[in-house]
Model the fold of this input.
Amino acid sequence: KYQYIIHSDRQTMASGVAFDTKLLEPYEEMKLRSKYQYIIYKISDDKTNIILDCLGDKGASFEEFCSKLPDNDCRYGILDVPITTKSGAETNKLIFVCWSDDNASVKPKMLYASSKDALKKALTGIAEEYQATDRGDLDMNEIRKKAGSA
Done:
């Protein structure tokens, strides 16, 4: 007569790294209310969870976002990017930024690469993915083009 539903707030990826679905709350606020300019996630030091690294308040600069991406390491970022469509309309798109510094060791690069897809899939509404492996790749004009800016 009774149906029991077991609900877990944790999702585990193929890499063995898990994330708590509560991590999606700031993303939903960013997507629906434009509350944040960016969100940066990282894999915990014990390599078992994806955790929130930092939030950028609405209006935070692209330079601030870039400064939060560490040298010799990796991060996942969500960036609210203003674009101009082909029809000339101004709008914003959410871009998933994969930061994997060329100088990072192989282990974190592989861990971040193998954990990315499940997180990205959980972040519904992401327009595009942008890969950056050195500071020169962090170019707002290139990110805007990737987001569909004319």
